[in-house]
Specification:
The complex is a heterodimer of chains A (268) and B (341).
Chain A (H helix, E strand, L loop, with lengths): L1 E9 L5 E10 L4 E5 L6 H8 L7 E6 L2 E2 L5 H7 E4 L11 H6 L8 H6 L4 H13 L16 H12 L6 E5 L7 H17 L3 E6 L2 H7 L2 E6 L2 E6 L6 H8 L9 H7 L6 E4 L2
Parallel strand pairs in A: 3-8, 3-9, 6-7, 7-8
Antiparallel strand pairs in A: 1-2, 1-4, 4-5, 9-10
Helix pairs in contact in A: 5-6, 6-7
Chain B lengths: L16 E4 L4 H20 L2 H15 L7 H13 L6 E4 L16 E13 L4 E14 L2 H35 L7 H16 L2 H12 L3 H26 L2 H9 L4 H35 L7 H10 L3 H29 L1
Antiparallel strand pairs in B: 2-4, 3-4
The chains are: A alpha/beta (268), B mainly alpha (341).
Amino acid sequence: MIRFESLNKVWPDGTHAIRDVSLEVPRGQFCVILGPSGAGKSTLLRAVNGLMQPSSGRVVIDGTEFNARTQSVLRRRVAMVHQHFNLTNRMSVAANVLAGLLPMVSTARAMSGWFRPEHREKACELLAQVGLSPAHLKRRAGELSGGQQQRVGIARAFMLDPEVVLADEPVASLDPKISSDILRLIRDAARERNATVLCSLHQVELAREFGDRIVGMRDGQIVFDGSPEAFTDECVESLYHGAVWDDTTPEEAAGSSLALGTTNVSLA
Amino acid sequence: MTTRPIPVPPRGAEVKWHLSPPYSARHLLWLVLIVALLLVTGQRTDMDRMVAMTTQAVGNLIGVADDSQVVRGLSRVGTAMWPPVIGEVEEVNRMSDLDRDRLPLFSYIEVQERVEQRMNLETLQLEAATEQVEVLVKPLGYVWTVFVKMVETLEIALWGTLLSVVLSIPLAYFAARNYSANRFTYTAARGFISLLRSVPELIVALFLVLAYGFGPIAGVLALGLHAAGFLGKFYAEDIENADKKPQEALEAIGAGKIKTLWYGVLPQVLPQYIAYTAYIMDRNLRMATVVGLVGAGGIGQELKGRFDMFQYGHVMTILIAIFIFVFLLDQLQARIRARLI
């Protein structure tokens, strides 16, 4: 179970990214965090594995508070699937997946690449599970298509059998067909291990299809929390509308938005 | 859902944009300043005399000018250097360990007549005395000596490069802002790298010859230390500029610095590392011929010795050897490059 307790994040430039967010996600739930760009979805996810230090409030994972002391233990239990896949492009697919084990293996083993046979087998199993073939093992990760790269990313994330999977816009750069394939893979692999999934998305349809629960965020605040059935079109409207355009009315926008004043553009 | 129009300025509205011309009076002022600076420094470095003397030399060569200091100087050296020395002749009775049944390859023993001017003590006059001297002639003796020295030069370059790679890896780790343990180690590593880079090989070698004596040790150390500064800087900057995404992924699961570096950074920067190391090898090969001038082994030491004894024929042989050496290396490098790319 993950519990956010009145979490706040203010960036050094004064942006209030997260405002007093409290949320509880029970074990095994597929929780989709939905919202427009800049709503604070990624920032919230990154608080769970310490890639972002909150300004105030705390994150508790299964009764253990996330802090500098518990970070190294908790990070092994929290996996992450990234928007841009974050693979080492010039390294083989096999090595990328095995890199998911790095916190568990000794430095000597890691540097020599001499992983235990059971670990190598596990990497193969996971790659088969995400739909890649043995021919992909030795290919460079950077040569694969976006969808295949994300599959490798998922295999890497599940190498440590995580209790929590953070998926930060995992399908933002993929086409609709591949997007639902990828989300299905994450959901099924997580269910098999009874892992909690926190998945940020911006596609409403995918959120409704895959989420056990939808949390809507806008301007760093939770504005909706409920089942996919309760997330009606009116909710979509209120979640997305006005968030970006809030400061200008349609009349103003039509009249003055290109009146930039005298602008000096120099090519020198 | 309500839609909003994309905002467009109303028709007839005045557009107050302004695109200024690319050059202004300020640029002209800069130009004048730069030209003035060039004129001053040119005068200070005798560039005017250089132009005058070169013109005179060209005039002398095409028969317009009567005399040229440059042409005289060059032809004097050129005459002294020709022909290059190829063989070697040694007096047999000065050689203690000569085995007459087993002479070195291609060499033979010959009896030569030597004419020496001697003072006759009775008449107090110089008389020509003829002497029979047995000598060992090695037709390619000096070429062989130079070849051996050249191989030594190659070895100095190789070990210098190896040493610099080994030294620069820990240096680069501490000099990379995102991996160094703290500000102190970062500053210390950067400072050390700057120190290594700031002292040229020749000057390092000068001091190391005092410490380690004449010979290749000083050469290897001088090349290695200087190049370690070079490589340390380049490696560190590559680590800093490497794609952050895979590093973030490994940090998120708590992989630790060394393992993150190995799996998230090294594969990305390896091609650049190889390119830098190849450049350093190339540079060291050329520098290895020079560090010998201060006694740090290799062909340079031989060159300096012959030059100081006014044996310009020998110097010529060495210069030709260096030219062939560098030429062959360039060819080799072009081959390797063609194969790799």
